[in-house]
Amino acid sequence: MNLAFDGASIDGSAYTDVVDLARRSPGWLDSAVSAWSTYGLGVFAVLMVIGWWQARRVSSAAALTALAVPVVVVLAYAVNSVLKLMVREDRPCQSLHVSTLEACPAPGDWSFPSNHTAIAAAAAVALLFVSRRLGALGVVAALAMALSRVWVGAHYPHDVAVGVAVGSLVALVAMTGLGRRPDGLGALARRISTTRLRPLLSPSAPLDVRAAERVPTDR
């Protein structure tokens, strides 16, 4: 017997209001939102690459911090996935039997919390520790991702709200902890500088591996 949680009692009416609005909206808008919902996570990958590329020209510690961002995103995804398995909430399109822009996932593809929004929020918050400008872009993109996942019918509003909270919290804790260990960053940079991975930290000759170096918050 497959016991699953029905989240419709929490904000099912808000979900149906958004889905109904999407159904009445112009086709070009629905297409744009659907495309963002499906492919928007690629933007965060681009932001992470840009952040790393810029950080290499600042310092080895900055480059290492930028390289930590995708690791933090994977960690947030793992934490969110565990929560999914624990709660086991059915997708709203299964519980409410509504027509949605995105095809309704099969039973067992749990809804709470939203993986897309957890990944987006984790990337945005982690990028704030690399560059305020990139992080600000990431925050806007993450909010757009959260809204899009409800618009296409994939999640309840509470699914995306908790997804944002999980991703943000994991990234905040992980990146703050990393920033409090500058000696560790310096030691790791020195080790990497003796290997073929050295270009990951600097675009040119001698690396700045000062252990106590702080990572600038804006570039």
Beta percentage is under 5%
β-strand number: 0
Structural class: mainly alpha
* Helix content class: 55-70%
- Radius of gyration (CA) equals 20 Å
What average pLDDT do the residues reach?
85
Shape: elongated
Give the H and E element order: HHHHHHHHH
Descriptive overview:
With 219 residues, this protein is mostly helical. It is 67% helix and 0% strand. It has 9 helices and no strands. The chain has helices spanning 8-24, 27-39, 41-56, 60-87, 92-95, 115-128, 132-151, 157-179, 182-192. The chain is elongated.
What is the gist of this entry?
By secondary structure, this protein is mainly α. 67% of the residues lie in helices and 0% in strands.
Topology:
Layout: H1 8-24, H2 27-39, H3 41-56, H4 60-87, H5 92-95, H6 115-128, H7 132-151, H8 157-179, H9 182-192
Helix pairs in contact: 2-7, 3-4, 3-6, 3-7, 4-6, 4-8, 4-9, 6-7, 6-8, 7-8
Key features of this structure:
disordered C terminus; 9 helices; 219 residues; mainly alpha; single chain
